[in-house]
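As noted in the main text, all predictions were made from sequence alone. Below is one such record, for chitinase.
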Amino acid sequence: MNLRAATAALVLGLTTLHATPAQAANIVPNPGFESGLSGWTCSAGAQAVASPVRGGAAALLATPQGTDLARCGRQVSVRPSSSYTLSAWVQGGYVFLGATGTGGADPQTWGSPGAAWTRLRTTFTTGPSTASVTIYLHGWYGQEPYLADDVVLDGASGEQDTSAPSVPGGVSAGGATPTSLDVTWSAATDDVGVTRYEVSRDGGSPVAVTGTSHRATGLGADTTYRFKVRACDAAGNCSAYSPEASGTTTAAGNGGDGGLPERVLVGYLHASFANGSGYVKMSEVPDEWDVINLAFGEPTSVTSGDIRFSRCPAAECPGVESDADFAAAIRAKQAQGKKVLISIGGQNGQVQLTTAAARDAFVGSVSAIIDRYGLDGLDVDFEGHSLHLDPGDTDLDAPTTPVVVNLIAALKSLKSRHGDGFVLTMAPETFFVQLGHQFYGPGPNGAADPRSASYLPVIHAMRDDLTLLHVQDYNSGPIMGLDGQYHTMGGHDFHVAMTDMLLAGFPIMGDAANVFPPLRQDQVAIGLPASVNAGNGFTTVREVRKAFGCLATGTGCGTYRPRGVYPGLRGLMAWSINWDRHNGFEFSRSHRAYLDGLT
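Prediction:
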């Protein structure tokens, strides 16, 4: 963990077609924007212009702004089980062309044509009940404006469907946890077929789902919420909303924190190795630390799932205590109210649970370590190539990639085995979490790093059992915040922007319909290097206090303004206890006093 900077390349491939196409039977109304944007639904940065155009008297000019990709789309009636070719002539910066709601594999193509008009082209086949599709164009974050003209959808025009589905019945809200409710209803009927349901909470914007149930997450504890549901068909006809149903979340738990203080300091103890910072006995860990993560448990092989924890040998760590004294010191810390966890992974401990056998081995071996030393729980510090997302794995609520699915199942099994007092923490890098605002797995073109934001489905699945998430705000490249700007590690603004994303939630890949919901304030701490020797991105005591004060009290903020004030922000994590001692205890003593002084 945190011994080298994480690096990743996000490579985009460009493909354009320049051949002159055969004449198409175009079924797109207003395909050349001769009637302005009539019939098109576009972002604020889009307009019809008279020049330059490829043909006719107008073209589309659209400018990406911040997280707005300058999207323009429209619905077109089609026939079920039919083949279509979609094309458009484009110019300028990055341009994406695609279709959604096809009933099959939704197509997308893109290019970076520059100053010459260039044709983008893709194909698709509609599903057996598809009566309409939405075609669209959009640009990309921070890139130049684009132009589009002569949009063509070549294929059979569909019958006009004007009949809305029936109203869903039997809406109910149950399955309450402190942060979620399960909404269910009976299926609606339609003359062609229901393609989606839209669930509105407390009269807000609806969330689209394909089944007859929806889990509403990111809710407040002990709070009543109202839900209503409507059904929609492929042509965009929607029923009236159902009568509202109410549900109440349960009272807040502490995710197994077992009585940790309101503000916590979390530190990693080099228990299995030395790296120049000096060995620290368990009995010598200063009282300022509330959570002590033993670094590290590592697998016998990358895919075995069999985790082993070996104490640092005396040849590497002079003065290391015996196993008996180590265990006794753990019990003494626990008697003082401290929590001691086994941390799995780190920079060198790649863990890929690719099979059910590896999943079960992980559960059994981690449980054995916890039981041997009487530990309070587990810290997940997977780095490198431990996690990734397969192509097409885009549903945050229902991931399909084996290494992600098996990790979630293993963590739930450990929680069930060790009970309500089980403490679960996670320490991912920003690349695996906040980068999801821009990239999620390999992306729509398969060109991005498949590890991008791959922690998100794990965090999301475990949010009701998660004690603390302390993302490593260091060893990080620039990350885009909710303000659409890139932020760089080492100063208060970086910590404010990264933490705000966790507590406000954020759209994945900029898609407002696909959001990572906010975590509870008591679940989030800021991850930092304890000294300049501990990792890239060291932040001075003054800058850390400025960041924490901005987030927790709303005062002293810099350029970045968080979306809310978070008085329940839980605390700070440091790599590491050893490096803190090496630096004269500046981190633990300064920040403990600051946190204790907050009201």
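Confidence is low (pLDDT under 50) at residues 2-24. The first strand starts at residue 41 and ends at 42. These features were considered when defining construct boundaries for the mutagenesis experiments described in Section 2.9.
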